[in-house]
Design a protein that fits this description.
Arc Repressor Mutant, subunit A; 9 helices
Length: 193
């Protein structure tokens, strides 16, 4: 069995702490404590909290991107079913955490865009990366006549991402999935016309 690297342990533990507490409220000591390593190990691997956040964010974005691509590339499922599965997965993830975490990209987007230009650019790129599989699936469904959408697929993909981010924020505030459920109903209605 391959040995897990200290760097990977720190990224995994720190990603959870960032997600739960936010960037400003997360200290290097918090990350080291959750990872069960000395604080100096953090600096040996990352140098700064910003450099660490960039790596943790990349891991989070890549994992979500792979899952999204796997779902959206499955043209054996109708597009409305794939969009439903996407929104339900987001809702289930948010509610499993007691509607406290939301999306790491959204959370950091609210918190760090004025403080770190490199992280802001990385967050912007994350949304572009997530748009591609969804826009591609919508375009293929539109071309097949599966949906009567007249909106350009990339614009609809952005709308879905933006709406989900807002619905997750509202779910955190209200501690209920009602906003995500409402968003799903409206998106499916728009796509089903």
């Amino acid at each position: 069995m391959p040995r897990v690297s200290m760097r990977d342990v720190l990224i995994e533990a720190g990603q959870k702490v960032l997600h739960e507490r936010g960037y400003a409220a997360t200290t290097v000591q918090d990350i080291a404590a959750v990872a069960g390593v000395p604080k100096g190990s953090f600096f040996n691997h990352f140098g700064t909290k910003e450099a660490f956040a960039a790596l943790a964010l990349e891991r989070y974005v890549s994992a979500r991107e792979a899952g999204l691509a796997g779902l959206m590339d499955n043209d054996g499922l109708p597009i409305l079913q794939r969009v439903t599965l996407l929104i339900d997965a987001v809702s289930n993830r948010v509610m499993a955490a007691g509607a406290r975490d939301g999306c790491l990209v959204g959370n950091l987007g609210i918190e760090v865009t004025g403080a770190s230009e490199p992280l802001r650019q990385q967050l912007s790129e994350a949304f572009r990366r997530w748009r591609a599989p969804l826009a591609g699936a919508l375009a293929r469904a539109q071309a097949r006549g599966e949906i009567a959408m007249t909106i350009e697929p990339a614009a609809m993909a952005d709308f879905i991402q933006n709406g989900l981010q807002g619905a997750m924020l509202r779910a955190k505030v209200d501690r209920t999935s009602a906003s995500i459920d409402q968003f799903k109903m409206i998106v499916l209605e728009l796509l089903g016309r």
